[in-house]
Structures are given as structure tokens and as C-alpha cells.
Amino acid sequence: MNDHPSQTLARFAATLRFDDIPPAVVRRAEDLFLDWFASALAGKDARAVETIARFAQNQGPADGPSEVLISRRRTSPYFAAMVNAAASHVAEQDDVHNGSVFHPAAVVFPAALATAQALGSSGRELLAASVAGYEVGIRVGEFLGRSHYRIFHTTGTAGTLAAAAAVGHLLKLDADSMLHAFGSAGTQAAGLWEFLRDAADSKQLHTAHAASAGLMAAQLASHGFTGARRILEGAQGMAAGMSKDADPARLVDGLGTRWTLAETSFKFHASCRHTHPAADALLALMREHDLRADAIARITAQVHQGALDVLGPVVDPQTVHQAKFSMGTVLALVRPCGAGRVRCALS
């Protein structure tokens, strides 16, 4: 009997070995980890993150094997993953995969690092597990499609399975147990874009929940806890409830030959990635024509539908974080760098 796509994806995540990963992909994973680490530290002192950190401190153990990066406090893997994931998603400079519209680092690395610290895993094991998490999460995001992204925050939904894959790999789950981990992760997958309309703190909760719930799903599977085997493509699975254009073929697209982690890019501006093309175009025009900001009366940006779906509701930003999703605010902050600089940035 042939595997269904979820089984194939689970087998890949369970059996991937460090030596299977091309050296260039390993190097990219190292760079992505460093980029994530800096993004997580940048979340320190953000009110929403500190609120989640206080919750974790009140609920979790006073000591443990895993580190909360913003405080250097030690706690359980579950709560370390929760806080570090929340911190990762504040500065808006965490990495992004365009095809899945997914920020893998913010959910994969917090769960993987916390677990690796608890297990005493090697660097090679941490990297291999992180690659597994990226490959699973990105493919789940692509599978769910753009109709999913219009309503659901993919980093919160696909991210739960990405975290489960990374932790499951570190726990050395076999393919069947990994599939159960996917089932438990998928049934917890959540995250709605409605928070952007009123500047709610939910974006940090989405990554905190995805990383910790994915970790829990893998840990449960390691103890024999079962999950739905077709949580992705089943008749009452994620695609059935969260997508109108899901494509199961995307779950297994190029497994082992197409390394989607290498397609993941860095963000050079501290704002939603949907604002970056317009910001870069404006910067180029201002440099080319030696334009000052006060000489520009109006800007019209042509964007794709995905950008409209996310940025459109933000018409009157009330907080710094909400302003990162306002095209008008981002473009108003654009300033060219000094002469001779290769790249310009938002002021």
C-alpha cells in the first residue's frame, strides 16, 4: 500500500540524517539560527513578551535544563520554547519563506533549542532537527495555500507541525510516532489575523503556542499518545476546515532534493515582509532622483492580493507593532542612506 502524503512527510522528518543534508543547506541553517537568535533577543522588554514570560515563570519550574534567552532564566523545555518563540516575533526581522508565507525560525528554533538543551543533543543533531522542522512546516504552509493565509496566520498553524517535526526528530521518533505527533500538533494548530485590526498581542501568542504545542505533541507521541493519521488531508482535517485550495502534492514536493530551508530569506527591514518591495522601490527612486522625503506628496504602491489581505485592515495603526503592518507608515519612514552605502533602510 502506498503511503499517503502525511505518512511520507512524517517518514522524511523521522529518518532525515545530518549527512543527508547538503553542506550549503547546513551553512544556511547556521545563518538562519544566528538570525533567529538576534531576533529573539530583540524581543526583550516588549510588553506582550514579558507578559508571556511572567505567565511561564508563574506556571513553570523555578529551574530546568532549558534557557529563556531574554532573561537567562532556566526552566522546562515547554516554557522556554514558549517564551523564546514569543520573543522571536516582535522585531519583525525573523526569516520568511515566500511560497508558504511562513516564518519558520520563530517556531522551529525555540522548540528545537529548548529540547536539545534538555537532551544534551549535539550541534549536528540540533541542525538536522531544525532542517526537518523547516522542511515540514514550509510544505504544510504551501499545502494549505493562499486561501488559508487570508484568514489564518500560517506561522501559528503550520508552525505547530514544524515544531513537532523538529522536536520529534530530536526525540528520535520513528515514522509512525512522528505521524502521531503531526496529528496532535495539527489538532492544536491555531492563529487568526483578526488581531491586526485592533493591535492585539496575539501575534506573539501564535508563535508561543505553536512552538510549545508542537513540542508537547512530539513528547506525547514519544510516550505512545496517538494523533489523527490524516490530520492534514483528512475529511475533517486541517485542509477541510482551514483551506479552499489545499494541494496534498505540495506536502511531498521534492522531499530530499528540494531544500526549502535554502529558499528562506532574511528581512532587512523591521516590518511586515509585504511592505518590503514597496519600501525598496521607494528607496531606489529616492536615491536615483535625489528625492527628499518632504518633496514627496503621495505614494501609490501596487501590491499582490496576499499583501492586501494582511495589510488592508490596518488603516489607523495605534501601536508600534501594528504600524509595522501599515504600508503608509512604513513608506513614510523610508529614508535613503548616506552616499556610498550599498543598502538603505527604514529610519
Please render the helix and strand layout as text.
Elements: H1 5-15, H2 23-41, H3 47-59, E1 66-68, E2 73-75, H4 77-88, H5 105-119, H6 123-151, H7 154-170, H8 175-186, H9 202-222, H10 238-242, H11 276-288, H12 305-311, H13 320-323, H14 327-332, E3 334-335, E4 345-346
Antiparallel strand pairs: 1-2, 3-4
Helix pairs in contact: 1-6, 1-7, 1-8, 2-4, 2-6, 3-4, 4-5, 4-9, 5-6, 5-7, 5-9, 6-7, 7-8, 7-9, 8-9
Number of separate strands: 4
As residue ranges, the low-confidence spans are 339-344
Radius of gyration: 20 Å
Q: In whole angstroms, how far apart are the ends?
A: 58 Å
Helix content: 40-55%
- Major sheet: 2 strands, antiparallel
Beta-strand percent range = under 5%
Mean pLDDT across all residues, rounded? 93
Query: Would you list the SSEs in sequence order as H and E?
Result: HHHEEHHHHHHHHHHHEE
How does the helix and strand content classify structurally? mainly alpha
